[in-house]
Amino acid sequence: MSDNTAVVEISQKANQFRSSIVLQAENKYIDVKSILGLFTTLVGNHAYELHVHGPDADEAKKAMSEVFEKHGLNVKVVSE
């Protein structure tokens, strides 16, 4: 993905939460709070799973879903 704005926005949004927010791309797990991890992983046409755990997980899931959708990324939030 060449859109740096999406990566920065996703990372900034993730950093507003205390929960652990991990993106699963095939067999890789990326901390969404890491801009570098996102840069090397996010490609628009892939399907991803988002795993969220922590004290504010519900709010984080909603906010992260919205920001991924805004940038046209196919992300499924996994409810554990």
Automatic annotation (TrEMBL):
This is Phosphocarrier protein. Residues 9-69 form the HPr domain. It comes from the Bacteria. Signal peptide: none annotated. Gene3D superfamilies: HPr-like (3.30.1340.10).
